[in-house]
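Annex B. Sample input.
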Amino acid sequence: MKAVHYDAAKTWSVTDVPTPEAAPGQVRIKVGQVGVCGTDLHIHEGEFGAVFPLIPGHEVVGVVDQLGDGVDRFQIGEQVTVNPNVYCGQCAYCLAGRLGQCAAMLGYGSNFQGFFAEYAVADHKLVFSTEGIPADTAVFSEPTSCAMHGLESLQMRPGGSALVLGAGPTGLLLAQLIASGGASSVTVAGPSQFKLDTASRLGVDQVVRISRDDPDANIAALLAASPHGDGYDAVVEATGSPTVGDICVPLTRRGGTVLIYGVTSESDLVRFHPFDVFRREITIKGSFAEMTSFGAAIDALRGGRVRTEGIVTHRFGLDDYGRALDALRADPTAHKVVIVA
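Annex B, continued. Sample output.
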């Protein structure tokens, strides 16, 4: 089969590799589409715990092609997706029920073989049916599960106001979940007008266009747009930019929460005044890998609580994997990029 294969960071090719067989307890999937996200750019650089050699890709939708012995939950041809995050079940964190902090976590497409290929296999316990959901929506199952975990981590009080900094796909998914989770208002801010227009079409209450390089003006504009003029009860950093991270605390109301949701580089630093956090009792949280949010995410997509129309802008075949990375990295017209196997 054809697959994207990395020998090392930044060193990859589209090549033929053996087609995997479904072992007992496994499902083989004929890959339909795989989303490309910012994490894939980090993996390309050798970051985010990447282990090589590697077939990357973790946002998959496809159809069941082969069932291993003992698997009876699925039918051949059924549309499915895969939770790419695997906990060990044996470390101190797992045994304490803190699965997202697993000390030996594995991830499809980061430290073992992923889905930028024509076929892939997965343990059946990680496979979820998306039958009946359009493929262009089902391909958002993994990022929606991350957004669902973000909502769970935020633990926002009903009736509060929220600001999502970043109008990328994952920011828009989380904004919709925050709205359906009881927020009184949700604002999305970003520098790209067409992404903000998509946010408005998806039902976000308010959008604010901000600059990439004028933090003081951004703070002033976003405070002025907040419901009471003094910021937001929840501020979500969904860009992975430390420059954006720097303005999160000043935009947070007294007793509010900052959620670090975007993926930065490991060496990036964000600045804030500790006295401000202390005096105004600001909580700062992170939201990393989900472990138990996949079913809820698929239900939200199936029920229309999370909508995805208009987010996919670019499609590439496996042979054009390099162009897909370039589009995600540098094309100002790109929103969601997918690989079609």
